[in-house]
Amino acid sequence: MQEVKHFIAGEYCESSLGRTFDNINPCNGEKIGVVHEGGEAEINAAVAAAREALTGDWARMPEQQRTEVLHAVADGVEKRFDEFLEAECLDTGKPYSIARHIDIPRGAANFRVFADAVRSVPTEAFHMETPDGSGAYNIAVRKPKGVIGVISPWNLPLLLMTWKVGPALACGNSVVVKPSEETPTTTALLGEVMNEAGVPPGVFNVVHGFGPDSAGEFLTRHRDVDAITFTGETRTGEAIMRAAASGVRDVSFELGGKNPALVFADCDMDRAIEGTLRSVFANCGQVCLGTERVYVERSIFDEFVGRLAEAAGRYKLGRPEDPATDMGPLVSHEHQRKVLSYYELAKEEGANVIIGGGVPAMPGDLANGAWVEPTIWTGLPESSRIVREEIFGPCCHIQPFDDEEEAIRLANDTPYGLAAAIWSQDASRVFRVTPLIEAGITWANAWFLRDLRTPFGGCKQSGIGREGGVHSLEFYSELQNICIKI
Ligand SMILES: NC(=O)C1=CN([C@@H]2O[C@H](COP(=O)(O)OP(=O)(O)OC[C@H]3O[C@@H](n4cnc5c(N)ncnc54)[C@H](O)[C@@H]3O)[C@@H](O)[C@H]2O)C=CC1
Ligand SMILES: O=C(O)/C=C/C=C(\O)C(=O)O
Fold first, then answer.
1. Which residues form the active site (predicted)?
2. How far is the CA of 295 from the centre of ligand 1 (A)?
3. Same domain, yes or no, for 250 and 281?
4. Would you give the end-to-end CA distance of the chain in angstroms?
5. CATH number for 351
6. Ligand with an atom nearest the CA of residue 92
7. For the CA atoms of the chain, what is the radius of gyration?
8. Separation of CA 426 and ligand 2 centre (Å)
9. Statement to judge: residues 399 and 473 lie in one domain
10. pTM summary value
11. 435 and 360 in one domain?
């Protein structure tokens, strides 16, 4: 039976109060192991270790060596690829085919890309004139921000945690990570890799636990944490922002979404179907960038709905390790209850259930897992809760539109603004429409095409700030302007 411990000051440790909680396999509801539950004492110890690390070897380490250490972390993840893969898929239930190509390689890449980015970003310098004629130079020096609190979610656990930890360490900070209580294992495993790679003790710390009145809240409230980065639900973001207000700490938030796809009659239908299928159902719909609202030009509406439903109907639900599996279960029974409550609501609101809408019949032990059917609805008004609220499951509502203006209006009629996808072969339309969409990321004829150097984040209630490439360096470093009079 697996036992997941905290990782503080380079060592694994148990909870001071001796409390643990169960880690459950969402495929069959079986207990995988126990996780040590941290409280105020563990957060205090981790933050103190992180603070201490900022005065030791890590602070004195030349940038070139820090880059090499972070490359060694990436190598270490790759060396133990199968271990990370199995742990991630056991915690989440996601298919190996996804984690093998996305979660684990990206978990490693996040260290390499940001370590290299730090070394390639130029220093800003301005010469200025002065009244005495001798002038002055302004040089912007990039320094670590300090101790970074990282609160990460369960949908892409290693990927989204390293997306924050990679650049934070590349900029010379130390971190305290509170991984999601649903998926603690790969974050804990990374501690071993950090030690093997030569990351000094205290630079990377992990405390397990829950959100409110637990490790998450204690971390975000801690006055010795200099900045907080969070991915998760918008309401949690509001709570963390309130905590960060005390002490005026900086935040970077990537929050919820209710992302639209606009499918125009001039699209390449095969590509639009394949891309929308992935954007709705990949990772069992548990991707913040995923599509939950599809708007299709009326002349191709029936064909599109029919073909998408047919493709979704071919999806094979199964065990993570089965190469034939397209979709796993949801992350937990709690999340299953939430998604199924929306499936019920859709029926109550009068939706046409094109496909799915319930719990699939799974064989043997899988019958106890957190499974839901891939689901497509049509026929609901835009005011319906199904169309307005983030469900975070394998489902979408499809609605027809008559012209470009209406499509843009429908896409933007949401409090969220994370991502959007447009499907059209008319280049003028693509250039005209994409900037009018209120979203931090808009794809045209693609979905989830990610270059780690590009700005990533949401507008409206989908987030604050941008991470990715130089934007991550902006958040994870403090710029000091040094003005030198000649
Ligand atoms: N990437 C995304 O956009 C994600 C969105 N979600 C959405 O959020 C819904 C709820 O899922 P949860 O896992 O409960 O998301 P959540 O936003 O509540 O949890 C994410 C992380 O925040 C921590 N947390 C929760 N409350 C906190 C607080 N007051 N202070 C500090 N940390 C706190 C949790 O322990 C976890 O590590 C999902 O149904 C889905 O709609 C969930 C995960 C990822
Ligand atoms: O960075 C990526 O490529 C993926 C990001 C996905 C999320 O942020 C999410 O689903 O929460």
1. 254
2. 28
3. no
4. 67
5. 3.40.309.10
6. 1
7. 23
8. 28
9. no
10. 0.97
11. yes
